[in-house]
Design brief:
Distance between the termini: 86 Å
CATH class of one domain: Mainly Alpha
Oligomer: single chain
Strand content: 25-35%
CATH topology of one domain: Neurobeachin, Chain: A, domain 1
Structural class: alpha+beta
Number of strands: 34
Strand order of the largest sheet: 3-4-5-6
Helix content: 10-25%
Largest sheet: 4 strands, antiparallel
Radius of gyration: 34 Å
Mean pLDDT: 85
Shape: elongated
Length: 819
Amino acid sequence: MTVEMLEGGVLQPYKFRREEHTHRFELIYVNVSQVLPHVCQLQRASTLPPNDQNTMIQAIVRSRQRRQKFDRALLENLSEVEILEIQANKVTPLVTNPGTIMLTSCKLYFQPHNNAEKYPVIKISIAEIKQIIKRRYLLRQVETNERDGLYEKLLLMDGLTLDDTQQDNISYQWQAGAISNYDYLCYLNRQADRSVNDLTQYPVYPWVLADYVSEELDLSDPGIYRDLSKPVGALNEERLKRLKDRCKDMPEPRFLYGSHYSTPGFVLYYLVREYPQYMLCLQNGRFDHPDRMFNSLADTWDNVTTNPSDFKELIPEFYNKEVVGDFLCNTQGIHFGMRQNGKPVGDVELPPWADGPHTFIQKMREALESDYVSNHLHLWIDLIFGFKQNGTEAEKSDNLFYYLCYEGSVDLAAITDLNERLAHEVQITEFGQVPKQLFFHPHPRRCKSFGLYDSTILKSRADSLESSEGNEGPLAIDKDGNFPIEVPFQDPRNFWQRLAELKQQRSCRVNREGINAVAFTADGGSILTAGQDALLKIFSLPEFNQVRSLRIGTLAVSSCLHIPGTDTILVGSWDNVVYRYSLQYSHVDPYIEAHNDAVSCMHWLKNILVTGAWDCTVKVWRIEGGADGILRRKECDNTSKFGKAGHLNPLCIGNAILCEMDHDSMVTCVAVHPDATYLATGTQDGVLALWSLPKGELIHQLNCHSHSINALAWNVDEEERVLTSGDDGLLTIVDAHLGTKICVHDLKETGRCIAWDGRLVIVGGISGDIILFDMGTGLVIKRILAHNGPVTCIAISPDYEHMASVSEDRQLILWGFDD
């Protein structure tokens, strides 16, 4: 039998001729003496039974590959130092080509074992390598020792500079709106070992639209979208019921779906017009029946939602604006056959709402990036890459496939029978493979408030600011020179949208020594400062006049806050005491002898006072009677804790310690969750601890920084996360539920204090600069030279119209907007 391909240079089905022929071969690259022994070996193998035939051929191949050595004449420079030489396979669609890898001191080479490749050797400079990913093949990590050895050697190479963005950072960037849904899905597919070079693990993308028949497409209408919380097979309830009934009667291992959502056949179903040669290779020289081909979007969607054996998802080409829909057109004029309606297979029939491939891809991409999809895409990620892809959760979610689709389902290396192993490989290759699992907990949804920022604009503006540090003028973000304003001015998000317009309004030197803390009163009418000279000072707004200055204790004061609804200011001191100052009576009292060492930080929320100290403890106090309890004055006897009748005694007014938490080093900062359900504490040794309130039970503890944690801030949006800033210059976001880092950025400068809205961060730097940093893109958006010393504290007014900053330079600066 002979197979004739590309007759006349035209792509068409192969012709199989089962008759005697005489052929003449011309050897171009080698002589007969080199080829004839191999031909004789293969001829002998062909006389054996099929099982023995496969065994002999594999033995011939392995023996030949072991004898192959890298041709040193292919080295670009003979002075290169050879580091490692191993055997490897180059994987491309439907072709796995063996060869030899040579790693030298400056390049990575691949020399194929045959002359079927376009180039005799592939050369990659070490400096050009940006990513090295350990991939699996045929549901297993292949040639682990050799692969891992090459991986480790590469990581040690001089001149190697990798894009070291972590998965957690990318996930956060997507949630923050800094990268698109399309780019995030690209990234997840790469991390899950899916590549356009491997049709058995081609990138998988969801159907997001369910309307391919309407004349117009309203992307704001939720009714046009597919339910992303369900796999394709569960979108039709009637079909799903039939599949479940069949599954109940199956022997183990049971499965719900008899086909997968991504296989080589399904990928080429979509791409046959662009890559017809792949379909001929996959289907033994034939195209599919003309009426079963990808002829219509509407028909294909109807089929995947009704057919009992069709559950395929989409591929990236449906959303990639760079390919402009070439795969939808029969531009090569391939004759795929005649359909039953008498028409030849031509271009794909598009929905009425698309007037051509370009418009179709554009609309599909807009749908993928729509608010509806952004708010629900995490549910589909759970099914494909996350905790619902296998096991009990997969069963609950109607997401169960045949067992050979899952990694670890079979150990091919342990199968000694060559034919049995080959059968398993064919099954795995053709049936489909579930991606490598990336997430083991529900994937966070995309946060709604993050949509307020245009990351493209922010990035371009950040690039332009590299040469203009210190500019204190208004920062043009869009064509109108402002952040877009879409919410009332009273909404705190508006403050962050307009942050680039923040300008210095007033400043003054207020203390003889550095200032440790600044705070606004609850009504926003005054500013408080606490200094190392033990002075508490009060400034009126908007006049910015100093109205009071009083000494608190004998040592420096570290923190201050105003209790809403009262005339009471609490001040933490290095003499271990929390003091109470009455605005009404201008009277200072030792309020709580809180710790055995200096009080370093305080936080008040919902009648709970939290104090941290250098004695390595944090205490949570409840003020019985709420804010009114602070105002009650009781006469105490001479055995009062502070030894003077008539002074406020914490026992007299009913203060009680709810809990006390020990740490291994000095406590530097505390922050209570806005719902008062969590407490975050930071220490001098860089450890973040998360506690439950009101019981004070330790939930998570992790090393966030190599040096002291200087500041903490909670996200007030849906996701419960805390941001930390440390002496090592890092900004780290931690998930309170999981106790894991989800984003880390190097600010390249120690941040002493922070304010955070969930994406943008205001950082008070050790340089004296006020820095606006975008955690989504990892970019500095604005940097203002504010102080001549480290910024020690920043505060935002209750009405979000002003910000105050203080520093070791003894300056207080008030920031605001022009209007």
